[in-house]
Amino acid sequence: MAQAKAIAKFWIATSNHIEHVLSHERLMQTAEPTKDVRVVHRLVSDMYCRYVELCRNLDRCFDQTLQVQRRQVIQGLLEAANSRMLELRSKLQEIELSEFVYIDGALQELHLIPDDVEAVKPFYLPARRPMELQSLIDSRTLKLIADHGGDEEDNLSQESEQEEEEEETSETLRRPIVKRDRQKERLRAALALITAHEKAREARVRQTNFRLHPDRYYPKPIEEEIEDIQYEFFFRPGQQMLYPVKRTVFNWDFRMKQKNVVNFAYYAPPGFQEQVRAIPEPIKPPTKRKQAVEADELAALEAAEFQRLGEARKQQRLSDAAATIQRCWRRYHASKTRTRERYKRSKFLGLFDEYEPNETDSRSVDGVRAARRERKQEFDRAFLAAIADEKARILRTRGPALLEDIGDAVRAWFCQWYDEAHAFDVIPELFEGGTMLIVRGETLTPLEYLEQERQRQLDKLKSAEQKKKEADAKKAAQEQEQAKRREEKERLKTLAAEKRARERKEGKTYDFTEPEFVSNAYVTLEETMRRYRKDWAFVNELENPGDLPIMEWITLEKFAEVHRELHADVHELLKSERELLQIALCKDERGKYKPPKPKKPPRTKGKRAGKGKRKEPIDVTADRTVESMFDELVERNVVKSYRPRTFEDFVGDFNYCAFERRNRLGQDPPPAMGEVRTILRSYLCGMGPLAVPKPKSLCLLGPTGCGKTLLLEAICHETGSVLFDLCVETYGPIPAPDIPAFLQLVLTVARLLQPSVIAIEGVHRAFYKKVPPQEQPFDPSKLGKHLFKQIVKQLNAEDKVLLIATSDQPWVAKVGPLKKCFEKFLLLPRPDYGSTVLLWQHALRRYVGVPRDLDLSALATVTRGYSAGQILRCVEEVLRIRRRMQFGRRPLQVEELLNHLLEVTGQLPLADKDYGKYVKWHSKVDKLAKLRVKVMRDQAAAKETGTTKKK
What does 861-893 look like in DSSP terms, one character per residue? Predict the structure, then answer.
């Protein structure tokens, strides 16, 4: 209930937002006509930003609203707002002469960021099909589209994915998942804590006993010399103690206080040998007793000096060891401090992102929204049941009275005609309105009938000359009227030609009151909002927590529907009564009864039958079921599956300096990869249940590894489309005469299973200028001869079918036929610095243990221009399982990636000359690109002329 109230409040705020946007629309219409393109660009971009935000709010309202009548209003507003947003974007593309538009000025004025105006995935995508069709698709085993080849970026991760799956499977087999017992873990932790405290207490008691009672507790001295036991001690930084013992100072030296430590063997590293200079014993000459005593004293002094020197050397070695340990520790600590400070500085500067989103909260929110979305069908069924019950109630309670009222009204009409005209008028046919026109008073009155009869009698008395004069006068008036229309048409044509010539010479004048700015979508949005304010003025939407329908409106609507149905039911009865009255009147007047001629309903507008009628093509799928046609396409490997990709997998950043360079410096900057997502998502708005315009066909151009197949799979996945693959390997075995029937079969199944995507990878092969010898057995150009007629021309605006093609060598194809088949040509840009940084981050973050503070800025600067496929391939080849196992003792370095990319693989980025071939070909087929090249050439020539004049 609280959620329903929150959604109602959000809808009220959104309705106020609509009024705010419409007020800005009216304000823009009051602007004076101008020739300054910058002013027009600023106004249109401002409105575009507002409509993007409005469409997001309406999309959320339409997604979470359960009240059916309000949802119908929101749906109309959402369709109009989306159409208006696409119109404004098309206007910006027309102004900037490019598919990629930049509105940084409007973002600064509205305090927004580029993510706020990026197109998002609508809630109604992926679209849903009927249950029987979806079960038919799910029951078939389909081949993956990337099995026969594709972009390097799309195929490079299959091996690593299989490797990861095998690793996860083996890990699962080795380590079964065991449920944790929290109570036992708490008991073990408590027992470990008690044990640690008890051991510390015993150690303190033992030390006190040794200090107070040395005779009792000190061990007896060992006579033999203590052997030096060699051992190794390994210590790892950050290693925790086995038991968290309370801090106690242990001095075990007190065990050796009573022992002579002069010859005590100290610890020496393994393999260390002390080199002590041997002092030769003095030779005792055969002298007298005094000399012997002096010699003994000298020997004692020498022995004492030798002992003192040994102790000094020992102390010096200990001091040197302590200094070495301290020096190494200080260097290690300083290095760790520098690394920590550099990490904090890089994090503060935003060189890497350590933020990990809370996926649990987002999943819970998505779950709540999905649960509320699933209840829409329940409310729809309840609404339809309420409509049926209300109609049945009206028929049961008011039906007989309505029949009597209709009959009484028509019979009163008969009496009026008989009293005033002594005749009976013909009841209109059902397609004209029937008896409803009589009740409304929209039929011929008796006075008008008498006037027509009088005029008819006068026409009979006229002579032939008078009739001829009147006919000639009428014909002359018609010819004069047609001449005026022709003159007006010629005048408008001349004005339009003069306007175009003036615009070519002086520049276009933008009038904000013309239909190009005041479009049908804006008018629909305004009328829908006005009708909503009028109808819902007395409805308190906050007092309907159960989202129940408003029964008063249902009653009025069903009452009118029942009234129309009863008029149709009583029409034949009253028509028979009128004939009986007319027969009786003719008998009274002794006249002959002439039944009225039945009128035929008007024909719908269409092709006229006759000699010039075009023969309709024979439908080869007329007598076939959906299952048989679908199974045939599955057997031919036409219907294929795809990997679950999204547009977020197409990693790329925006071009943040393009606005300044294009609109203020007059340059033509290259687009960035992040702007491709917004363009493609704007094309997909019409793939759902809403009536939003969309292109029929789209062609993606770019070199190998730039993500064409990834975008194709993302389009299919986000729209939930069925993929029909028409590559050369698919239609190659089909004979050329059977290609039209094959394409008709594909289009029929695509319409039945819509939304659908018909994909043609390597479309240049279907329009070869000259077929290579190795491909001549397939005859790839047989598809291009029938593609426009059988697929593109047959697609309607309401069909949720999209034709998508990819090409990495478009210059080998014929420009004319290829340009005729596709409405949009999108050239995928090369990665710039920002996109390259994001690509490295995206490729490295998939692996655990990779340092977050890698210097990716320098790496991206060096590898700028490499395709996304090359970058991802490099990361996957470097970070194999064996290298990832070494992260603990040998962290990853940037030099490894760079050396592998430059030395091991020897790959080079796409040269400017090679990419210029794509740009040159794209400027031939794309209308906006061709105009932009011409404008830039004219600007450069004018600038050069101005510089020459100054000199």
Answer: HHTTT--HHHHHHHHHHHS-HHHHTTTTTS---
CB burial of 378-395 (b: ≥16 within 10 Å; e: otherwise) equals ebeeebeebbeebbeebe
In sign, the C-alpha dihedral spanning 165, 166, 172, 175 is negative
Amino acid identity of 863? T
What is the per-residue pLDDT for 194?
A: 92
Nearest-angstrom CA–CA distance, 220 and 226: 13
Question: SS3 of 724, please?
Answer: strand
**Which tens digits make up the pLDDT trace of 209-251?**
888 877 777 665 555 444 454 545 444 555 555 545 444 444 4
| Strands of 381-496, DSSP E | none
Task: Specify the pTM.
Answer: 0.75
Strand partners, 410: none
Rg (CA), the chain: 45
Q: Using alpha carbons, select from 752, 788, 782 the residue that is nearest to residue 767.
A: 782
**pLDDT tens track for 860-909:** 888 888 888 889 989 999 999 888 888 888 888 888 888 888 887 777 88
* 275: pLDDT strictly greater than 60: no
Q: How far is CA 672 from CA 260, 630, 677, 829, in A?
A: 81, 40, 10, 6
DSSP assignment letter at 613: P
C-alpha 313: how far from chain center:
76
Roughly how many angstroms between the first and final C-alpha of the chain, as a whole number? 78
Q: Cα–Cα distance between 755 and 750 in angstroms, integer? A: 7
Residue 702: closest CA among 823, 865, 828: 828
The answer to whether the beta carbons of residues 495 and 6 sit under 8 Å apart is no
610: left (phi over 0), alpha (psi -120 to 50) or beta: left
| Residue 431: closest CA among 177, 309, 604 | 604
Report CA 245 to chain centroid distance, whole Å: 56
The set of long-range contacts for 713-716, using a CB threshold of 8 Å and a minimum separation of 24, is: 713/145, 713/146, 713/154, 713/642, 713/643, 713/645, 714/645, 714/646, 714/647, 714/649, 714/650, 714/680, 715/680, 715/684, 715/757, 715/802, 715/804, 716/642, 716/757, 716/759
CA 343 from chain center: how many Å?
Answer: 33
Residue 901: its H or E element: none
| pLDDT over threshold 80, residue 178 | no
Structure tokens at 430: 């059902």
Q: Does 47 have pLDDT greater than 90? A: yes
pLDDT per residue as tens digits for the range 448-500: 888 888 888 887 777 888 888 888 888 888 899 999 999 999 998 888 888 88
**Cα 40 to Cα 28: distance, rounded to the nearest angstrom:** 10
CB of 95 within 8 A of CB of 41? yes
pLDDT at 284 over 60: no
Predicted local distance difference test score (pLDDT) of residue 319: 87
Three-class SS of 518-571: CCHHHHHHHHHHHHHHHHCCCCCHHHCCCCCCCHHHHHHHHHHHHHHHHHHHHH
Work out the number of other CB atoms within 10 angstroms of the CB of residue 126. 15
Summarised one tens digit per residue, pLDDT across range 650-689 is 988 888 888 888 877 878 888 888 889 889 988 888 888 8
pLDDT at 948: 62
CA dist 542 and 709 (Å) reads: 48
pLDDT tens for 48-79 read 999 999 999 999 999 888 889 999 999 999 99
Give the angle 636-642-645 at the CA atoms, nearest 5°.
165
3-state secondary structure of 98: coil
CA distance 719 to 124: 9
Q: Are 91 and 97 within 8 A, CB to CB?
A: no
Region 616-634: mean pLDDT is 80
**What is residue 281's DSSP assignment?**
P
Q: d(Cα 140, Cα 138) in Å, to the nearest integer?
A: 6
